[in-house]
Write a structure and sequence with these properties.
Radius of gyration: 22 Å
Oligomer: single chain
Strand content: 15-25%
Largest sheet: 7 strands, mixed
Helix content: 25-40%
C-alpha cells in the first residue's frame, strides 16, 4: 500500500511518521519551495491530548526531540485588563519536565516543522503545488502537480491546510464562514529590557487581555533551551545532548521572543488590516490600543516589522458524513477552527493518530480500506465538530461582548465574576477543569478510545 500525503504540516508529517514506522510506503508533497519557507506563524500550543496523539505516531527519538525543543512550559494562565491588571490567574497548568505528555507545551511553529521533518527528509518533496487528482479504474488514485508531475498511490490524504485545494475537489460543498473577527500580531526579541514590560506571572504563562468593545489580546513569552551562543545554562543534560546533535537546528530560526496579538470585530477597525503593510499594521495596532497600558503599547512599538501580520479569522461549517473513498482529509483541510480554544493543531495530531491506526489495520489485513477510511471519517467528524463549535464561541462578532452598549455591561460583569473566582480556590479549580476539557487526554473521546483499544 502506498499513501500519498499533500501538505507537510503538523498533521501530515505526524501521520507520515506513523505509517513509515508500520512499514507502509508513504510520500509527502509540500507546495513551499524548501523546508524553511512559508508563513508558519510564531507559536503553537500543544495540549496533553496533542502530545499523547503525537507520541502514538512519531518514533520515540522524535518525540523526545519535540519535548526538548519546546519553549519553557507555561505555568500560569492569566486574564488581565487592557491596563494589564490581574483579573484571574490559574497556576500549575502543567510542567513538561515532570510529565512530557500530560502537560501544556509551547513550541515555535518553525521548530515544530523541523522536528517533524527529522527522519522524513527522503520521503518529503518540496515545491510540489497540488492541482487535482483522478481516481483510476484500477482502484488507485493519481495526484497531479503544477510542475506537470504526478504520483499514483492507493490512498490520497489532504493535509494541506485551511485553503486546501484537495478539499475543494473532494468536498465541493464544504464551506468556510467569516467570524467577523480580525487580528493583528507580531513578536519582539525577549531581552532583559523587554521582559520588564510584563509581570512575573506573564513571563511564565499564557496571558489573555479582556478590553472594551469586545477587544482581546494575548501575550506569550517564548524562552528556549538554546540561543545563538549555544545551549543555555541549567538545561537538563539529556535535553542538551538531544538539541546539540539535532541536524534540523540548522534550519531553525528560534530565539527567545515575546509574542502578542490583538483582535476585535471588523466594525471596530478604521481600516482593513489585510490591505496594509508592516509599518501600517503597527500604526493601526497602536491606534486600536489607545488608552491601553503603556507597557502593552511598548510591546507593539518594539516589534520586529518583518513579523507583523494580520489574520481574517474564519471557521469551517461542520460537515455531515459523506460517502467514503480512497481520498480523505485531516486537520485544517477538513475542520478549520478559530484559535479561540487553541486546539487546532492538537485536533490535527489526533486525526493523524486515528487515521494512522486505521491504515495500519488495513496493512495488517485486519480491515478493508473502504471500511477503515469510513471508520476514521466517522470518528473524526464527531470529535472535530465539538472542537470547531467550541472554538467559534470564543471568537464571533455576533457575541454580545462586541456590541457597543450591552458589551460594556457584559465586560464589567464578566470581570467582576472572574475577580471573585480568583479569590475562591474551589471555583478556580472548577473553572480550570472546564476550560481544559478540550485539551486533556481523558476528555478527548477519540484518543481515549485509542488508548483503551491499545491497552
Amino acid at each position: 500500500m502506498r499513501v500519498i500525503i499533500i501538505g507537510a504540516g503538523t498533521g501530515g508529517l505526524s501521520l507520515a511518521h506513523g505509517l513509515r514506522r508500520a512499514g507502509i510506503d508513504v510520500r509527502v508533497f509540500e507546495k513551499e519551495p524548501t523546508r524553511v519557507h512559508g508563513r508558519l506563524g510564531h507559536r503553537v500550543g500543544i495540549s496533553p491530548a496533542g502530545s499523547y496523539a503525537m507520541q502514538q505516531t512519531v518514533p520515540p527519538e522524535v518525540f523526545d526531540l519535540f519535548v526538548a525543543t519546546c519553549a519553557q512550559s507555561p505555568k500560569y494562565f492569566n486574564i488581565v485588563t487592557e491596563q494589564m491588571d490581574e483579573i484571574l490567574s490559574v497556576g500549575d497548568i502543567g510542567d513538561s519536565e515532570i510529565d512530557p505528555v500530560d502537560s501544556e507545551k509551547s513550541v515555535s511553529r518553525m521548530t515544530l516543522r523541523q522536528v517533524l521533518l527529522t527522519g522524513l527528509e527522503d520521503v518529503t518533496a518540496f515545491g510540489k503545488q497540488f492541482e487535482r487528482y483522478e481516481e483510476n479504474t484500477d482502484g488507485k488514485v493519481t495526484a497531479f502537480f503544477a510542475d506537470g508531475s504526478s504520483v499514483t498511490g492507493d490512498v490520497l490524504i489532504g493535509a494541506d491546510g485551511a485553503r486546501s485545494k484537495l478539499r475543494k475537489q473532494r468536498l465541493p460543498h464544504a464551506r468556510m464562514e467569516q467570524t467577523g473577527i480580525l487580528s493583528i500580531g507580531a513578536r519582539l526579541p525577549s531581552t532583559p529590557e523587554t521582559r520588564t514590560l510584563v509581570s512575573e506571572k506573564m513571563l511564565r504563562g499564557v496571558t489573555l487581555a479582556m478590553a472594551p468593545k469586545g477587544m482581546g489580546a494575548i501575550i506569550h513569552v517564548m524562552d528556549f533551551k538554546w540561543d545563538a551562543k549555544g545551549i543555555k545554562p541549567r538545561t537538563a543534560v539529556a535535553d542538551a545532548d538531544i538539541i546539540r546533535s539535532w541536524s534540523g537546528r540548522q534550519y531553525d530560526d528560534s530565539q527567545d521572543y515575546i509574542l502578542w496579538a490583538i483582535w476585535a470585530a471588523r466594525r471596530w477597525y478604521p481600516e482593513d488590516p489585510e490591505k496594509l503593510g508592516p509599518e501600517e499594521l503597527r500604526r493601526l495596532a497602536l491606534r486600536m490600543t489607545e488608552g491601553w497600558s503603556p507597557r502593552f503599547r511598548n510591546l507593539i512599538e518594539l516589534s520586529e516589522l518583518n513579523t507583523m501580520n494580520s489574520i481574517n479569522i474564519r471557521t469551517s461549517v461542520p460537515l455531515e458524513p459523506w460517502e467514503s473513498s480512497r481520498v480523505t482529509l485531516l486537520g485544517d483541510a477538513v475542520h478549520t477552527m478559530t484559535p479561540g480554544r487553541g486546539v487546532g493543531a492538537n485536533t490535527a495530531l489526533e486525526d493523524a493518530a486515528l487515521l494512522c491506526k486505521r491504515l495500519v489495520e488495513v496493512h495488517d489485513g485486519k480491515r478493508g480500506l473502504p471500511e477503515a477510511i469510513h471508520s476514521y471519517e466517522g470518528d473524526m467528524l464527531e470529535y472535530s465538530r465539538n472542537a470547531v463549535l467550541e472554538s467559534r464561541k470564543q471568537m464571533d462578532e455576533r457575541d454580545v461582548i462586541h456590541k457597543p452598549v450591552i458589551g460594556r455591561a457584559v465586560l464589567a460583569l464578566t470581570r467582576t465574576m472572574m475577580r471573585v473566582v480568583n479569590h475562591l480556590p474551589l471555583l478556580k479549580r472548577l473553572m480550570q477543569r472546564k476550560q481544559m476539557e478540550l485539551r486533556k487526554i481523558s476528555d478527548t473521546g477519540a484518543i481515549e478510545r485509542q488508548r483503551t483499544q491499545m491497552a
